[in-house]
Every structure is written in structure tokens, then in C-alpha cells.
Input
Amino acid sequence: MNWDKLRSFHLVAEHRNIAHASEHANISPSAMSRQIAALEKSLGGKLFHRHARGLSLTEQGQILYETVHEMMEKLAVVESQIGESRSQPRGTLRIGSGISVGGDWISPLLAKFIDRYPDIRIQLTLSDHLNVTAGEVDVAFLYERPTSANLVQRRIMGFQLAAYAAPAYLAVHGFPKTLGDLDNHRIITYDNDMHFKGSEWLVAQGRRAGRERRSVFSTNNTFAMRRAASTGMGIASIPTFMARGRADLVRVLTDEQCPNFDLWAVYPDALRGNRRVQAIIEYLAREARSIEEE
Output
């Protein structure tokens, strides 16, 4: 049983989906499928039931999963112990996060972190389908608090979704003063409620009776929303940290109640006390306080 194939099997078992697992393994779905097929052939039995909703483990697959999962947890503990035996945090730190917070907030802060900890090498995975229990990252920064008892969780910061538009758009269409005014404006919406429950507030709140408020542009990516708003397409609801210091966006509806969210640091219990993990969490928590105090 080749270790690479076992690791691929573990990822697929965690995600119940070949495409999502291959994304995290940085290989193609076809290559991932071939690895699973080769492992099944070497073992002489099927590991997954394949159906319309995805994959589920067979009895043989469940037996193998339990063993491989235990192996990966033990490897994580060994890695932590080896890293902690040195005087300074060093080695590879695998960070995972959603696309917007990782690309727009975490990435620009990492230069100072590396200056402070020059012996740490960072791998940053930006994905909307992170599964921390699979062992693919050491620590993840997530918008929703996980429910697994095997994960350590810490709140990093709170933030809002607020409404923004380009100065050029507002010069033509005017400033909306209330949510009701949005009936006469162009709205940019987020069409994936996976992370931002309540993100539809610009189209759902303050509508006149019997009147439907529709968006002119919908996307599942907050970067695309920000870009569309900054070019004058309409009004978008994006995380406040994505608009800080930008001259091409103006916040509107400042007197209205906006959706609030928390950002959580999440890591396996096996890495509790890992100095690399604790270093990045403490560093980002300090940076987050400066945002919340503004």
C-alpha cells in the first residue's frame, strides 16, 4: 500500500468527493481517480460506493480509513514534537483560509511575520472547501466555527459586511440613504451562502411591498464583487477589511444594521501547543485588534 495512494484515499474519504480532494492534493481529478482505482486493485476490493450525491465508504473502506486516519494523527504529533524540540519555531507552516480573507488580509501581513520568524516557511492554501481534520493544513482561518470536538478553536476577530460603491457610480445614481432606496439602484450580489449567511441583505431588506429587487451581477467570489463595484457596476456588500484604504470604493448606508461575522482560527488537537501554529495565531490576533479598534 503506497503512502501517496493512502493519503489520496484519506482525502477522498474526508471530502466524499474526488474533485474537492484532488484540489487539495494539487493533482487532477483523473489522477486522483487512478490512485484510488490502483489502491482498490491492490487490495482486491472496493473502497467507495459511488452514487449521485458523491461517495461513501464501503465496509472495507471504513476499516482502512480508521487506520489511515490514526496514522496521520500520529504523524502530526511527531511533526509537532520535532518542531518543538528546537529553540525557535521553524519548519513548514501550512495555513488554510477562505479566498477573500487569505488573499486580502492574511497574505499582506505575512512579510512581517517572516521577518520575525525567518526559519518558518509558509504554505498558504486558499479554498472554500477546507477540511482541517484531514490533516491537509496545520491551521485554518474560517468564517464559520466548526463543531468537531477534535479541533481547537479561537476567535480571531469580528467584521461586518458593508455596502460599497464607486465614486463614479454614486455621482450618476446618487447616494442611497436607506435600504428602501436600493429599489432604484443596481445591486451586486454574492450567490454562494456557504460562508456569509445573511449576505443577501442588500436585496432582501427594506424592499417596498410587492416589489422585487434584483441584482445586476451575481458571483460566488468577493474579489469579483469588489472589482465590479470599483468599476461602477453597482453597490456590493463585501467584508469591511476588503475595502480599507481604497479610494475607488465609498461606503454607503452607514446608518443601517449590517451583518456581523467572526473569523476563527482552527487546528487539530494534536497540534495544541505547536509553536509555529501558536506564533501565527498570536500574530494575526494582534493585527486583528487594530482593525476592531478602528
Remarks:
- The chain has a mean pLDDT of 87.
